[in-house]
Amino acid sequence: MSKFRLLMARQCGEKIAADRGFTTFPVDPFVIAAKEDILVEAKDPDRKGMSGCIVFNDDGVGIIYATDIRSEGFRRFTVAHELGHYFLEGHPEEILKAGPVHFSRAGFVQGSSSIEIEADHFASGLLMPTRLTREALYKAPIGLTGVQHLATAAEASLTAAAIRTAECAPYPVAIIVSEREQVSYGFMSEGFKKLGRLRFLRKGDGLPHTGTRDFNAVADNIRLGRSVCSQSTLAEWFGGSAGTILDEEVIGLGSYGYTLTVLSSEALADDPDEDENEEQDLIRSWTPKFR
Questions:
Q1: pTM of the full predicted structure?
Q2: 140 and 123 share a domain?
Q3: Transmembrane segments in this chain: where (predicted)?
Q4: What are phi and psi of 68, to 5 degrees?
Q5: Is residue 14 located within the same domain as residue 138?
Q6: Which residues does 249 contact at the CB level (< 8 Å), separation at least 6?
Q7: Taking each helix axis from N to C terminus, what angle separates 144-154 and 130-138, rounded to the nearest 10 degrees?
Q8: pLDDT in tens, 44-74
Q9: How far apart are CA 262 and CA 212, in angstroms?
Q10: What CA–CA distance (Å, rounded) separates 82 from 85?
Q11: Are residues 241 and 122 in the same domain?
Q12: Structural domains of the chain, count
């Protein structure tokens, strides 16, 4: 899955939000669906498994979203994810190859399916456009508090807000989502990647012996949404400098069943004016040049 395709999916989501008149937070995916004459319905909370589905048939398009996870932000992300399947080029055709109904597990926990990853990035761009996200982060403290500020402003899930923080933050920050003793996925900001030659954590990797692993050992920490703050080092997490101290802020994600870890430090803060525009550089590198 190329970074360029994910960038295009995210920017498609941002464009849809702007074209539908959303220039401030929050962006409402239910309103956007209504404007497209897409029927959106809630699924019975007793039915668990998938986060939602999209249906393409002769009568029109419908979206069903799960309600067993008690997070309005997650439900909004699920609807935005399904809208990605509707708006992204090639998705309806790919889905219809297998039939009119397509089930999803939104929230960056998919396997290798490219259209699911693209739909997640569309959803993050739709709900948290880059300009609005950066404005919110500039006004908030570094770390978990900044992520929570963005989630509140955008009415987004904490995990989606954390991922957008890593993508847009003008300072070094990394986020890890984990379950028990294993990493589920992780993201680093551009500033964080510049801290040295770092080992990137992938799904299934074991958690280091830090505060996150200790936190995950107590099931009630996750179920009750508890949070703790401790310190660890860049070396413990990514094999970087042992002298680089990180604030390790950990919070349980309730019925979602995962843990979010935010790794940052006030001492590593970048000057926002020196932030490079990676997206423009990436687009420029892919733009054909003719003689």
A1: 0.88
A2: no
A3: none
A4: -75, -25
A5: no
A6: 143, 144, 227, 228, 229, 261, 262, 263, 264
A7: 130
A8: 776 666 789 999 999 999 999 998 887 899 9
A9: 10
A10: 5
A11: no
A12: 2
> Which tokens go with 23?
């220039």
The structure tokens listed for 43 are 């699924």
Whole-number mean pLDDT of the chain? 91
| Distance of alpha carbon 161 from alpha carbon 181, whole angstroms | 23
Cα–Cα dist 49/103, whole Å: 10
CATH code for the domain of 170: 3.30.450
Place of tokens 């929230």: 107
Reply yes or no on whether the pLDDT at 273 is more than 60.
Answer: no
Q: Answer yes or no: is 44 within a domain.
A: yes
Please provide the DSSP assignment of 88-150 as one string: STTHHHHHHTT-SEEEE-TTT---S-HHHHHHHHHHHHHHS-HHHHHHHHHTS-SSHHHHHHH
| C-alpha span between 88 and 98 (Å, rounded) | 17
Residue 173 lies in a domain: yes
